[in-house]
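Regression test attached.
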Amino acid sequence: MKFYILAAAAAYFVVTSAGAQQLAPSPTLDAIKARGHIECGVHLGLPGFSYANDKGEWTGLDVDYCRSLAAAVLGDATKVKYTPTSVQQRWPVLQSGQVDVLARNTTITFSRNASLGVDFQGINFYEGQTFVVRTKAKVTAVKDLADSTICVAAGSTEEKTAADWFRERDLKVTIINFQKNDDAISAYDQGRCDAYTAGIGALAGQRIKFKDPSEHQILSEIISNDPQGPNTRWGDERWQLVVRWVLNAQIAAEAFGITSKNVDEMKAKSPNGEVRRILGVEGKFGDMMGLSNDWAYNIVKQVGNYGESYERTVGMDSPLKLPRGRNQLWTKGGLLFTPSFQ
Amino acid sequence: MKFLRDRKVRDVLWQVAASLLMIALIVFFVRNASQNMVKAGIASGFRFLWRDSGIEVPFNITGYKPSDTILALLWTGVANTLLVSAASIVLATVIGFGVGLLRLSHNWLLSTLAGCYVEFVRNIPLLFFVLFWYFGVLAALPAPRESYSLFDLVFLNRRGLSIPTPGVLHDFGWAALMTGLLVALQAIVARWARRRQARTGRDFPTWPVGFLLCGALPILAFIAAGTQTPWDVPTLRGFNYRGGFILVPEFVALFAALSTYTAGFIAEAVRGGVLSVRQGQIDAARALGLGQGRIIRLVVIPQAMPVIIPPLTSQYLNILKNSSFGAAIAYPEIVAIFMGSALVATGQAIEIIAITLAIYLVLSVAVSIFMNWYNARHRLVTR
């Protein structure tokens, strides 16, 4: 008996001294490291957010999040496998463990959080719902859409928000639910509906799918605030920690002025404590999550900070030309902030 | 232990044991799934059916409103599935019989055209058909402001076919009564005509005479009721026509796709059935001096039916199941609104898919039972 206790104690010391810190088990993280890539659930095809070009290369704001995750966990932003999901497919794909994380323009809602077994780990885009209409219909405000027919993707938050908005104002509209966004868009384009509704960011990208984009106009009035971000299934808290802090690192990097261009210089010279901890110069934050200490360095070096990613995918350097608006840092009048790296 | 030697008892015991094992397996899987779901934080159970749905259904015949429960939404989906299936079954049967008989025609052009139709339809995926009809229908129709209209009462545009509806249904009570009377009188006339034919061998034009005798009554009653009741006439308000009943293009497209597609298969079943009737029967009928139409109606079809009905049944079941293609074009049938909208809204995939499966199973079994009963009743009495 004594021997076993001694042996157990010896084993404990060996294990604890080998690793710097005893970590909670994370089956997801272990599986990712074993298979060598991250399984990321994205949108079927939404320019600016997750969109595959004709060579099969994915780009977009949500795609950049997946790449950041790969850079942090595996040290290589290219080690991502994308699973395009429809509005209906996204939850089963996440719940069943087919993807490690869902970064797919998905709005955080109470009932999703409470009954689907999923957790939202932060906000990477504040979306607001609006409508696209034909220019010749002469609609200027959403209430002008009374008695109209509206195409929408079934099961989206937009379906419910639009129904609630018009019912609250006692205006009658006909809402036609399509299984996929693209089906709803093409039905609208064919003239089945007077309007198609989606988030203003999504619409900016989807507009290019119309036969003649110049015939359509996106209303500037916004009827909702839909915060969107990456989500994970319940359980495996250490993986949730990684998902949450990778997003925080993207935003913090922008807040501290760390960009893909100056990251090496910042790492070598910055006297700021938080910058030094983010970039792994001190604090060994990577170890605490079970990642290498240059996890955040890899994100900024390979993908860039949140602002760089935003401008490249949906902002002024992209065809979408969305202003930062609410998706600006809180210090500059937006809503983005990150908890402290302490 | 003596009773175990009885073979019958042993057989029963084996079957009981096998059934118990089956049930135990099902219970095990259900329990396992529900435990795992609780662990993963996913809601389970059937209480969601009584929650408010909040889902808009643009086309329903059940009077459903978004403030109703998910159970009401399910019923609306079932009703829409049944509506499009029933309508398609009728039209597919009519087209199928027509094409099947035409294919056997001695007219080269007609039989070749019918043959081409069958080959074309059978070798194209149904989804293509559904989308073709949907976008074809949409592209062919004008925008609401340029609607085709009939006497400013009926309007046809990309939003559908708007028809006026009577404000008060009770006004049509008399008209319904008159229709019933017409049917009863017609039955009496037909009975008398049949007896007379059996007695004297002489023919009697039952249908025209019946209509002449009492056809005017219900028509007059309908006209009278129509002028009495306040009609809900569609009017252009803002973007669209409001009021009356709107037959949506999704319904028309799905109905047309299912009918034309399945008609191709039914035509082949009909052709097979007709070919199974021996030539001697037709020659004999001709020798009796029957015309072509009567030979088909009285001699060929009754003998072909027992051969046609089994494949016809499976085509009807196909229509019922293929109505789920409506989901591709936003026709609000059970798959689109229950397995689509309601599933995403509640996230209870296992329960919803199980309910949908059960409904399709019940409907299909009901159709099969009816068709088997029909076949048994109409089977030729062989001596």
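Expected vs. actual: identical. The interface with chain A takes residues 37, 39-43, 54-56, 58, 66, 135, 138-139, 143, 158-159, 237-240, 242, 249-250, 327-330, 332, 336-337, 340-341, 343-349 of chain B (CB under 8 Å).
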